[in-house]
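All the exercises in this workshop are built on plain-text protein records. A record pairs a protein's sequence with a compact description of its fold. Backbone structure tokens are a discrete shorthand for how the chain folds in space. Once this layout is familiar, the rest of the handout is easier to follow. As an example, a complete record with its sequence and its structure tokens follows.
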Amino acid sequence: MNNSCRFILFLFFVLIKLSYPLAGQSVSVGSKIHPESRLLGEIIAQTLEQNTDLKVIRRFGLGGTLICFEALRTGEIDIYAEYSGTALTALLKDTYTGQSPEEIFEQMADPLKDKYGLITGPSFGFSNSYVLITRKENDLTSISDLQDRTDLRYGFSNEFVERSDGFSGLNEFYHLRLSAPRGMEHGLAYKALAQDQIDITDAYSTDARLVEYGFQMLEDDQNFFPDYTAFPLIRKSTIDQHPEIWEALLLLENKLTEEKMQEMNYRYEVGKESPAIVAYDFLSELDLVSKAPGVTAKHPVIRQTLEHIRLTFLATFLAILIAVPSAIFITHHERLAAGILSATGIIQTLPSLALLGFMIPLFGIGFTPAVIALFLYALLPIVRNTYTGLLSTDPLLVEAGRAMGMTSRQILLRLRLPLSMDMIMAGIRTAITINIGTATLAAFIGAGGLGESIITGITLNDNRMILSGAIPAALLALIADQGMAWIERRMSW
């Protein structure tokens, strides 16, 4: 191995090492993807940091409710902010039949503890209910007004479309007789409604953009939606190990109102203030914190870029270790060749989000399932190009090698592989480019990377934040491609 190759490997492992968090006595706080959940996660994190001796690891923006819940259940995170109605209907699959907020809490607490080992923490003091909103000129006042209104254009968030306390249950409960609408990202729905692209969408009662746009909220005149009181959901094992966490969370009990939460959401979503600053201002008013959040050691884009490199390069490296020997093997086993090439081809056709979703029940969330998914995506171009390159070796050259007394191993190492190197490297370059793009979706399952900025930007309708993730990802793909081309040239010398 020449010095340039050694340097590339050294740099690769240094970047992997830098992207890992430091170990120690720590607790991991998660959040869903929407802004309020991030704010509540930050409030929890700062409260624990300044009222306990624990180090807090933030894992915010974990896709939808079920992804966040799966992360908690499997121990990937220790705490996140949940809502009582969501826990009852979406997590426990229980039925709402008009129970009071207190009854909902009692109904969900024991099953969450007994079945999943989770503790319902003290209420934050406010409820954030689902509401349906429309433009005022549509002259609608209640959900009942939507019966048989097939002339209206409905655009609900993806999660709302699928939940039993969302569109499906609402449609049946109110006898709306509407067909299932298209799903869309919640953060984009406001803009679509404001631009007259849809007429009805779902929202949360404490959303900041309700104030910004002044939309009409439709009255839930038949009381379909349950109470959605916010509270921290915690792993029992975490509380058993660190009982000081419970004492710290009690400091937040009933300290938030709907108006205060909407005000903080407005500062974050519309005012573009840092969630850390917004959370600190609220907690300092309560004298729960004394130290303002400082500047992080790494700029978010630098941290995300390192995480992105770790994901993509490690997955591609593992794919090379498996794909190249597999391709060599199937050149001597034609019956296996068709099956392996077909299998890797089928994996390549699976939508990226679907493949990441398949990983969650098997491997949980975070780094490991993301690497496995990217590894699978990288197999096809490397296997196919290596296989094709080996088969395309001139038979006359092979025969000449045999005539000179070369063994099959020598023919492979000194003839077939060197002559196929251009095609093999082309497959590797394709694989790593595909993985850099696909890895932006890994943020949905808490694997980090540049997708964090892109997804957060979409949620907040912040084009600057979207570009802060998209541009580095594109540059990283170009640099990786040119870097592999440089390695290819060095290897041919």
